[in-house]
Design brief:
Two copies of one chain form a homodimer. The first copy, chain A, has about 650 residues and is an alpha/beta fold. Chain A is built from 15 helices and 30 strands.
Chain lengths: ~650, ~650
């Protein structure tokens, strides 16, 4: 017995290999507003059945799905693109069904016998009638007459002509029932604002911004620096923690276990009787001063990024207000950070897994919301990998629920899986291994991975030649030429970059110990006074490079990166491209000696025809060269220039 | 307010990249009984937390899970293997948790301060007490005293020694609570009997087995052939459909539209007044005769495989009994098979999507179950890709529910996605493109894909140099040398192979038309009488090759295939390996001329040290060569031998 509504067998259509996706849709792919999402999938049915398929998508606030038809790429592969025009959570799915109408028409066109044609036309008439029944536009009234002719016309030649009517066919097709419809799950897309993809960071310690040596800097001092930072072309100013610094177990200069009177301690030892994560260090200024700084930066096209370091000094208010948020040792004392035999007694980690974990998680979320309310839309998160992943996934989603514009940079210099997990669960950008990748082979392999692997769908690199924690080997006791080449590399390889300044532009190259990545007299533990107007400052070079980055869309995203051959292991050559904007960079990796090379450009990667003549204009020197074809000669003297950053004109 | 049972935060452990798996566990990976499943996954937690992880698995009939600990491979990758020792559906999952004990011990070993050590020992005591509480074996009584010493011992050196006790540590570890436990979904494994992986098929038309020209062959005639087929080393005898052949619209010789009196028609035009898919063609014999043949084959170590062709001749009983199982044209007639303008009026396809689809699906399942009951455990399924995928997935699962030993070979020579889908949804083996892959590059690329791609987890190739439908270009009007080399290639490249005989061993090379893949006077439409004792029959070569396949485990599976360099495009060299059994094959792809080559063996792939001397014994000629190192010279004259099949001895 068949019930009134027919129970259909499972859909015979198949949708496989939907890309892009991250872990089967468990995590979102990432885009910025204005970009395209190009979806590919394998869609097919059995036998000679034809399929039609669409990408369905919807953005934040959309009540229903939009659809875009997929086009056949051959071999059962299909593709369609849609644009994500605003920030927030989007999703897409693929739907596929059996296309009886196209199958019918293709067969009809090949039929020969008159009787066969007349019968087949009647089959077509039934299909058209089905479309007619579902059709609701004004045009739809054309379908029924078409079906009638197909059913009744006896003249075979007329039938042929009528059956092949293109516009009626398209109308019927657009309104055909979707037989054997299969639909995939929805795959999420997180859409950020553009700065997620293209940003230029400048890290500075506000307390070292005083114009008088020895005086603790203030937000007002930072205000005074804004014009010069803006003139170097930075758009994010990242401040290490601005909160009260603990007094208890405070570290001395150069990380001495005991501090001297007057020592300022580490800004990452957060909290004292003066307050915790929502307070401002009294010597920096007031909340009002901070908000002024945020607005003053914004007026210059820059943003203030704050450091979120979720840990406490022993005199942080939470230690007494919420002792349950910390791990206790068997003697009742609070467990300080340690990596035996090393002890970090000035830092108490938080216990994300305590009985009152919800209370802590919510408090930390509220810390971030507090700063969002002060106008902070970018967080640089300190050591996110030492906190449980589910916390970040929850907390980032919580912030973004109301504030989808907030960006998060993960400071996790650790194992690849851990860094990738943080990127998957929501961090917008990630610090990278660039800081330690120096040889031509290392750079080529690493940036090929960053720009071409599937992980690019969620892992957005942010490349730093130095940080307050990392005076990298190639900068240690190194000449300014080394700083120059590391900046040019970062700025042309990666759309998101940053430096820790003024240590960088002034070429601070002194390690605490010969083999240490720590700076001597590091700002992490003491005030520094920087001679910003020094004649050999890299500020002009940095300004020139950053201006070029702003003028050239090619350098504002990462996926187009392509490496080209250079016949000298000390010379590296690569390009990026956005539409007609093409940038070729050639860098001498040796900061001590001039190096020359024949370079061989991959014209396919550049989207150029071989054998053409073109001009290349060097953004660093202002020189223009007339080049012809793929082979060209370069000679680079590090005393004069770290490399060529070449734009192409014809 | 906290409820009595603590609500824990989501598990902080992560399990990613579980392999092998097919479409996220939607389909089963395949193994045969006795093989290993080696599972790898990325497992990690945050910060310095250590994780432990296991593979859980269970086989048919198991009431609970078994566990095998995973071992760290470095970089957060882990691995473990388990053996699948019986046929049926298995499944596995990965579980991961935070290993506080190991973390504690590693830290403890690095601690220096006495007070620090005493406090840390008390932390350890608490962990050991937790293990003790969960422990149930006799040994467990050792844990509590251990915890007590850790808690109370004041002497730091004694504490160090006691804390590092290896066996107590292992005991505590094995019984530790699984904090932050994460578990993946279960991933299915379908385990077949060994013939799924290693089989040698011989296809023959029973009606052509008569010893008298012109007489319709019988099962009794096939009985008479069994010894000679067994002596050639085949283990599966595949029979085209053995059912009554339709009379209505019966095809004549060479696929003539009209048959002459006495024409036997195509066995794939199934069904007549004499019966349908569960009947036997009266001229072949009775069901009893068939069962006798099945048993007689089995007695010689062979199996009878039946063709399942789910379509009907116009006079099949179902056409009148179940007209609703067929599509009807607008004039009420039943829709025959067609590919306009071609019409196949002797064949009515079944409508798998009709109102009464359940009735049809169940009837087709029952057809297969009927033949299983007659002793048939292998089906070669005709054109499965022209039926909906959900039907096969359902039907194969239905058969296997009671009969997990049944194997299904998919005869789908179509697009890659379609063939792969059929393999995923349950077909045991699949015909391949081998029939058309002839050049060194084609063979190298295709067999690298078949043996190394992820699809090998579900797609088991079965390679045929010819079929009744495909007289491939390289065999058309070709010398016997071409047949020899195509057999040697198949037999050494693929563990599952088959030929359509006697056309193959007698070198039938005559196409119906010059450019046709159809045989002239094809057995598909008429009786043939074969001169089996012809002096130039390839039977002795086939027997020699097949004996070698049985003696050498290396040739009984596909994943070890590795190609080696030969400096002549007409000479191909590759090896397979199973433990100490290594087989190197060198084939001259040119059936007309002698070819020589220097071959360069990849000793890593062979698991051999370079620079060693060894003997290679040729299974085809019986010659032995003394080889040294990787470079060796071969010369192959097709008049004498198609190649070398070399086993290595030391």
């Amino acid at each position: 017995m068949t019930s009134a509504v027919r129970e259909a067998p499972p859909a015979a259509t198949v949708i496989e290999e939907v890309l892009p996706q991250v872990d089967g849709g468990r995590f979102a792919i990432k885009r910025v507003a204005g970009e395209l999402v190009t979806v590919t999938a394998s869609c097919f049915a059995h036998g000679h059945e034809r399929v039609a398929c669409v990408v369905r998508y919807r953005g934040p606030g959309d009540s229903g799905w939009h659809e875009v038809p997929m086009e056949a790429l051959g071999n059962d592969a299909w593709s369609a693109s849609f644009s994500v025009d605003r920030v927030g959570r989007w999703e897409y799915a693929v739907a596929c069904w059996i296309d009886h109408l196209t199958h019918w028409r293709d067969d009809f066109a090949r039929r020969v016998d008159a009787d066969d044609l007349r019968l087949a036309a009647r089959v077509g008439a039934d299909l058209v009638a089905q479309s007619s029944a579902l059709c609701s536009s004004d045009d739809c009234e054309k379908l029924e007459p078409w079906a009638r002719i197909l059913r009744e016309e006896k003249d075979v030649e007329r039938l042929r002509t009528v059956a092949m009517d293109e516009s009626l066919f398209e109308l019927a097709l657009a309104n055909a029932p979707r037989d054997n419809l299969a639909t995939t799950q929805a795959f999420p897309v997180w859409v950020d604002r553009e700065r997620a993809r293209f940003s230029t960071w400048y890290e500075l310690f506000p307390r070292s911004c005083s114009t008088e040596p020895g005086r603790h800097g203030t937000f007002a001092d930072v205000d005074e620096r804004l014009d010069s930072i803006a003139s170097m072309g930075f758009d994010v100013i990242y401040l290490p923690p601005i909160h009260p610094v603990g007094y208890d177990k405070r570290k001395g200069k150069n990380n001495a276990v005991a501090s001297e009177p007057g020592d300022v301690g580490s800004p990452w030892a957060i909290g004292s009787r003066e307050g915790g994560h929502t307070e401002i260090h009294p010597q920096l200024g007031t909340l009002k001063d901070f908000r002024h700084l945020v607005m003053a930066a914004r007026a210059r096209g820059m943003e203030i990024a704050l450091d979120m370091a979720f840990q406490c000094a022993p005199d942080h208010p939470w230690v007494t207000e919420h002792p349950e948020w910390f791990k206790h040792r068997p003697d009742g004392s609070i467990q300080y950070a340690e990596n035996p035999p090393k002890k970090y007694q000035d830092i108490y980690p938080l216990d994300f897994d305590s009985e009152n974990w919800r209370g802590l998680w919510e408090a930390l979320r509220d810390v971030m919301l507090f700063w969002v309310e002060q106008g902070v839309n970018i967080f640089r998160v300190d050591n996110p990998h030492t906190k449980p992943y589910p916390f970040w996934e929850w907390a980032i989603a919580e912030i973004r629920r109301e504030h989808p514009e907030v960006l998060f940079l993960a400071e996790a210099f650790t194992r690849p899986h851990v860094m990738h997990r943080l990127a998957k669960l929501g961090f917008t950008q990630s610090y990278t291994y660039y800081t330690w990748r120096t040889s031509k082979q290392e750079i080529t392999e690493y940036f090929t991975e960053l720009s071409q692997d599937e992980s690019r769908e969620y892992f957005r690199p942010n490349c730093w030649p130095n940080t307050p924690d990392i005076l990298a080997l190639q900068l240690r006791n190194a000449p300014l030429a080394a700083f120059r080449l590391r900046y040019v590399l970062a700025a042309t390889l990666a759309a998101n970059i940053g430096i820790y300044g003024p240590a960088f532009e002034l070429g601070d190259n002194r390690p605490r110990e010969p083999q240490s990545e720590e700076y001597l007299d590091s700002e992490k533990y003491q005030l520094r006074h920087w001679h910003l107007t020094r004649g050999d400052s890299l500020a002009p070079l940095i300004a020139r490079v950053n201006r070029f980055r702003r003028e050239h869309p090619a350098l504002q995203s990462d996926w187009s990166l392509a490496f080209h051959t250079a016949d000298n292991p000390n010379v590296i050559c690569y390009s990026k491209r956005a539409g007609d904007d093409r940038v070729i960079t050639v860098v001498n990796l040796d900061p001590y000696h001039a190096q020359s090379a024949w370079i061989h450009l991959d014209f396919d990667a550049l989207g150029l025809d071989t054998g053409m003549a073109y001009d290349v204009h060097d953004a660093l020197t202002g020189d223009t060269y007339h080049w012809y074809g793929a082979h060209n000669f370069v000679i680079l003297d590090p005393a004069r220039t770290p490399g060529h950053i070449l734009s192409i004109t014809f």
